[in-house]
């Protein structure tokens, strides 16, 4: 009875310790987010000019508090992007004790990959937005209407385009991670390829205006990313099989 009670107490202490560590990780992430938010708030004009320097029109505001909203939007964007690698690192540090040395080294490499792909998705989405979507939409007017572009609708539209790209650019990392866990296999990705293509084409159609060429220009890079994901999944899957075979041989030898 005493041993059972001691086991329960130790289990509760471990749970409290894990929750305390998780809280500390979240606090560190929150501090970094707030610090980057302040930095973004200070340099909001430079950030705003970066997003508007390629536009052939001027953005307008319709309310006294819209300027505050601009500051919050720009600062929040900087904070989210800058905090992403810190958040990934804190998650890795939290789960590290439960990983082997090899798993620690392998999973640590995911952190820069996640950040780089996220930035790559944002940049690609922004280029598509500026170079293709905006010119196409402006060409539809052809002098029929007076154009007034408000900042809130512009940035809402901008983020609705670039954020999906940033998320879909993470497909290779997600595929590698799920394959390493044994949840996903290259064969499954090949068998469901046509359904994945359909989903990616639908996504491309949703986030772009109804123009066939424009939708193809968006869907093709996403399909290429899926094929790259299959290739990377094959590499991880083979390494996983090799380790499993080595373990079985060593275990059989014993």
UniProtKB/TrEMBL annotation:
Q: Which InterPro entries match?
A: Sec-indep_translocase_CS, TatC
One Pfam annotation, family name? TatC
For membrane topology, the record states:
Multi-pass membrane protein
Quick check: keyword Membrane in the entry? yes
Q: Transmembrane stretches, by residue range?
A: 26-48, 68-95, 107-137, 157-183, 195-213, 219-237
Which keywords fit this entry according to its UniProt record?
Cell membrane, Membrane, Protein transport, Translocation, Transmembrane, Transmembrane helix, Transport
- The main location is membrane
- Where in the cell? Cell membrane; Membrane
Q: What PANTHER family does the annotation carry? A: SEC-INDEPENDENT PROTEIN TRANSLOCASE PROTEIN TATC, SEC-INDEPENDENT PROTEIN TRANSLOCASE PROTEIN TATCD
| Family affiliation | Belongs to the TatC family.
Report the function annotation for this chain.
Answer: Part of the twin-arginine translocation (Tat) system that transports large folded proteins containing a characteristic twin-arginine motif in their signal peptide across membranes.
* Subunit note: Forms a complex with TatA.
Protein name per UniProt: Sec-independent protein translocase protein TatC
Q: What would be the name of the gene that encodes this protein?
A: tatC
